[in-house]
Amino acid sequence: MKNIIIGMMLFLVSFSIQAQEKQNKNAKYDITVNGNCEMCKKRIENAAFSVSGVKSAEWHIDDHVLHLIINEKKCSIIDVKKAIAEVGHDTDEIKATEEQYQKLHGCCMYERE
Question: Long-range contacts: 51-56, Cβ < 8 Å, 24+?
Fold first, then answer.
C-alpha cells in the first residue's frame, strides 16, 4: 500500500512538471536597433513594451542592441520590430519610413543605411 501511494505521488509530481514546461513559451532575442541617446532608449523600450507579450526590453546605447524576452504565444519578434519602426527607429529587418524618421528629435537622427 505504501509503494502505491509513493508511486502515485511521483506520477503526479512528474505530470505537473511537464505541464509547467509546456506553458513557458518565453524566448530571448537580441536585435539591432539604430538610435543615439537616452531619448532613443526610452522611445525604443516603450515601443517594445507596447506590444502585448513583451516581458523584458532593454536597449543599450553603446552597441545598439535591444535585449528582449517575449511570450511567443502572444506576439512575435516581427511584431516588436514593426512597433519600433513605427516610432522612427530602424531594426535589422524592418526600416522606419522617411516620414517616421523625420519626426525624431534632432539628436535622435542616426545615420541611416
Answer: 51/75, 51/79, 51/80, 51/83, 53/79, 54/80, 55/26
